[in-house]
Amino acid sequence: MTTDDWLADTRTSYDTVATSYADMLRDALAGSPDDQAELARFAELVLATGDPAAGRDPVADIGCGPGRFTRHLRDLGLDAFGIDLSPGMIEVARRDHPDIRFEVGSMTDLALPDASVAGILAWFSLIHIPDAEVPTVFAHFHRALRPGGILMLGFFTGDETRLKTEGYGGHPMHVHVHRRPAARVASWLRTAGFTVISELHRDEYGTAGATLYARQTPKTII
Question: What pLDDT, in 10s, does the model give residues 145-156?
């Protein structure tokens, strides 16, 4: 499968489920103290990084879906905006959160300037990226983060890939869901130039998951 194939399948799938996804998960964050605590830690790390004004620097929620986490980051004091592959998801996000900036874009070809954001959240959006494309994604994250910027990743753990053909109200989908050991993801991050700060494990949406926090470390040019 080519990059264009899986990207097109993922985009179409989330366009199809965008409205039902937003409706079904609208109150999920409010009912998850664990998610709230992890996002609060992310906000604290961003706000504490470098310049005391760091919290006023932009924070990108990449794979933002309908924008519920983007809204929460704004409520935590971050200047958050959202990017998603699916135009349908972005349409819903703009409808539900008209005061927040949302853009269509792909983490595999991230259209953010170098050193332009203080933090990046990729919450269960990496799960659809094939292994071969992850280094490209992490290179974009490293490039877009300012020196010392914070990355927060949420993903399913395990060591398998399955094809998801239906979801969020029974709508048809065609997306591959990749479960990966946290150690493998952490190794990819270090290779990309990140320092892993901490790693948390818990059940996510009925299956094992992990959250990794990492700091952008400027690469040394010899």
Answer: 999 999 999 999
84-119 in b/e burial notation, b at 16+ Cβ within 10 A? bbbebbbbbbbeebeebebeebbbbebebeeeebbb
| Coil, helix or strand at residue 137 | helix
Residue-wise pLDDT tens digits, 27-52: 889 888 999 999 999 999 999 885 55
Q: Does the domain formed by 3-216 have CATH 3.80.30.30?
A: no
Q: 78: helix, coil or strand?
A: coil
Question: What pLDDT is stored for residue 201 in this prediction?
Answer: 92
> pLDDT at position 92, please?
97
Token pair in block for residue 116: 């332009």
Token duo for residue 140: 């974009």
Domain boundaries, the chain: 3-216
Whole-number pLDDT of residue 118 = 95
Residue 153, both tokens: 């990743």
Q: What tokens appear for 19 in the block?
A: 């409205």
Q: How many helices (H) and strands (E) does the chain have?
A: 6, 9
Q: How does 25-47 read in b/e, with b if 16+ C-beta sit within 10 Å? A: eeeeeeeeeebeebbebbbebbb
